[in-house]
Amino acid sequence: MRIMGIDLGEKRVGIALSDPLKITAQGVCVLERKDKSFLEKINDIVKQENVSEIVLGLPLNMDGSKGKKVDEAEAFALVLKEKTGVNIKLWDERLTTFAAERIMIEANTSRKKRKEKIDKIAAQLILQGYLDSLG
After folding, report:
1. Residues forming a β-bridge with 91
2. pLDDT higher than 90, residue 76
3. Does the structure show a pLDDT above 90 at 36?
4. Is 127 exposed, middle or buried (CB count within 10 Å of its CB: 0-12, 13-18, 19+)?
5. Measured between alpha carbons, how far apart are the two ends of the chain, in Å?
């Protein structure tokens, strides 16, 4: 059984998966939200990879308060649970996109490639934070 991490962006959705022992997170792909089948693609990965739980990034404000984006993430979590049938865990994602950007800048990744990969790396950071919390 694996755990899936999701970074829900406005345009793209980053996907990451844990290893079977639930120790490390690996970025898997980025899906376009405008693609109406992106929920089906997530569900396909859940089935193919034997995912038992999904960790969805919760975009809290820097002071920890909830904003409009939190409502969107919570609504998406309900749809995702209904579609996949697995438990959804909301996880504080503050600064994950910023951290992903820093990682890619330090690796001299071009601006174009950063745009393509940032959501996948953010999903990986969200999931790794959750895995680390499991001890």
Report:
1. 57
2. yes
3. no
4. buried
5. 17
Q: Among residues 125, 119, 122, 124, which one has the least CA distance to residue 32?
A: 119
| Total domains, the chain | 1
For the entire predicted model, the pTM comes to 0.88
Beta bridge partners of 14: 7, 30
Over residues 97-102, mean pLDDT: 69
Percent of the chain having pLDDT more than 90?
Answer: 59
Give residue 6's identity as a one-letter amino acid code. Answer: I
Indicate the pLDDT class of residue 59, thresholds 50, 70 and 90.
confident
Q: Which residues, 6+ apart, have CB-to-CB distance to 99 below 8 Å? A: 122, 125
Residue-number span of the structural domain to which 100 is assigned = 2-134
Whole-Å CA distances, 9 to 16, 73, 96, 97: 14, 10, 12, 10
Q: What is the CATH number of the domain that holds 17?
A: 3.30.420.140
Q: Which residues contact 64 (CB under 8 A, 6 or more apart)?
A: none
Spatial CA neighbour of 8 closest among 40, 37, 30: 30
